[in-house]
Amino acid sequence: MQRRSGLFVAICLWISVNGSLAYLQHEGEAINKCLKNYGGLTPENNERLGRFKEWSENYEEIPCFTRCYLSDMFDLYNNQTGFDKAKVEDAFGSPVYEACRRKLELDWGSSQSSCQHAYQGFHCIANMDGHPFTVIDSMANVTLTAKNAMKECLQDVHRNDWSRFAAYANYPVNEPIPCFSHCFLSKLHIFDERTRRWQLRTMKQQLGVPAKGARISGCHRQSGKDRCATYYKQFTCYAMAV
């Protein structure tokens, strides 16, 4: 069956982490079943599902849809036992699971899941996937100290600007979040302001760059319009050097 555009965010998220699922078998049947008491897959319901991430954290606009859909479509959720930790981590990564742990695990003493539990748990997953903190937690060769420094610096940035964090992966010419690099590099004491020299050994220990044998001789001469831009340009040079 051809995948419908704009459907439930779970479909998009699942496909984004498992490219082999270009089309989901029985998807239409499952969605129609879960929407049976609400008019089926009408244009209005399709639009509402497309706004899933915008729904209130505690209010599911289409009651019980999430539990019905997840239990019908994916092995990561069971109507009796709730979310399967190993399968959630396999699909979305352990940082996402850890960030949403309190919503994904059943309350102590509880032996059965609920529509509210399924909704709140998956709503958290949908909103944490790609979140800067989970991206930072997934960074390889970066120490816990460095990850915490990055998170602390993000706390000083307006939340509306956090969406720019993903752009760092492409090493753009201009820093996506101005002065962010200056902030966390300063916390890690990777640049010595007194000697005006980069502490490359510390950089390697904390952030895993530059690569061994990389050609970095000209990186310290990079410059920008201000101190923050210069920090970013020089650090980016070290990080990209081969």
Describe it for me?
It holds the Pfam family PBP_GOBP. Residues 1-22 form the signal peptide. Keywords: Disulfide bond, Secreted, Signal. The chain has 242 residues and is mainly α. It has two domains: 9-129, Recoverin, domain 1 (Orthogonal Bundle); 141-240, Recoverin, domain 1 (Orthogonal Bundle), CATH 1.10.238. It is 47% helix and 3% strand. The strands form two sheets. Strands 1-2 form a two-stranded antiparallel ribbon. The chain has a two-stranded antiparallel ribbon with strand order 3-4. It is elongated, with a radius of gyration of 22 Å.
Distance between the termini: 45 Å
Helix content: 40-55%
Quaternary: single chain
Beta-strand content estimate: under 5%
String of helices and strands: HHHHEEHHHHHHHEEHH
Unreliable stretches (pLDDT < 50, length at least 5) are: 1-23
CATH class of the largest domain, anyone?
A: Mainly Alpha
For the largest beta-sheet, the strand count, sense and barrel status come to: 2 strands, antiparallel
Summarize the structure.
The chain folds into 2 domains: 9-129, Recoverin, domain 1; 141-240, Pheromone/general odorant binding protein domain (Recoverin, domain 1), CATH 1.10.238.20.
Question: Which helices and strands appear, and what pairs or packs with what?
Answer:
Blueprint (H helix, E strand, L loop, with lengths): L8 H9 L9 H8 L8 H8 L14 H9 L3 E2 L3 E2 L1 H8 L1 H6 L1 H4 L10 H14 L3 H6 L6 H12 L24 H8 L3 E2 L4 E2 L1 H8 L19 H14 L2
Antiparallel strand pairs: 1-2, 3-4
Helix pairs in contact: 2-4, 4-8, 10-11, 11-13
Feature tags:
47% helix, single chain, PBP_GOBP_sf, two-stranded antiparallel ribbon, secreted, mainly alpha, 4 strands, 242 residues, signal, 3% strand, 2 domains, elongated, Recoverin, domain 1, disordered N terminus, disulfide bond
